[in-house]
């Protein structure tokens, strides 16, 4: 099993479990650490090259939106009471859930990898709790994109069999929900690649593609 790794999450957990400055004996509480990290993230959004976050995580990439991390912490804590634990620090998954929750609060667009979800549910998942969550998000005005490696080119009905009425797609194909003007029935329709692809693949002729693949195998 691959070890879960994320520099930001590991930094947060490290600061919670050990003094930030051992020489000064500086020890922050769990909530104080999240408050500090929220401030550092929002600073990094404004000053990506000279931020404190860049100092602690040199390879951190540019961030484009601030996060209200503490709102997410309080929302997560109201359910899990993780901040009250005395001997068990927040786990990797705890911190990841909080960061994900903060991101969801700031965005109206969510992307969900659903390959494993589809594999576990098989060909019918209308009663799945995950589908219920997705539908509730759609009702709240969120845009939900489900990304999967399961490819059915030109067969959107096969996605419908697994994801009833929810947007589905694959790396080479894009489908969106569409309502029939006559019957009112909602189904998936294929989006013309011209509408969403940038054209790079279409500019290559087959001979160039073959040449590239042949060179890659050398």
From TrEMBL:
UniProt-recorded Gene Ontology molecular function terms: 5'-nucleotidase activity; ATP binding; magnesium ion binding
Primary enzyme class: hydrolase
Biological process according to GO: inosine salvage; nicotinamide riboside biosynthetic process; nicotinic acid riboside biosynthetic process; nucleotide metabolic process
Domain of life assignment: Eukaryota
Alphabetic keyword roster: ATP-binding, Hydrolase, Magnesium, Metal-binding, Nucleotide metabolism, Nucleotide-binding
InterPro entries in the record: ISN1
Swiss-Prot/TrEMBL catalytic activity: IMP + H2O = inosine + phosphate
Keyword Flavoprotein tagged: no
EC number per UniProt: 3.1.3.99
Cofactor section: Mg(2+)
Family matches, as Pfam families: ISN1
Metal-binding is among the record's keywords: yes
PANTHER family (UniProt xref): IMP-SPECIFIC 5'-NUCLEOTIDASE 1
Self-association and partners: Homotetramer.
Family: Belongs to the ISN1 family.
Protein name per UniProt: IMP-specific 5'-nucleotidase 1
The species this protein was found in: Aphanomyces astaci
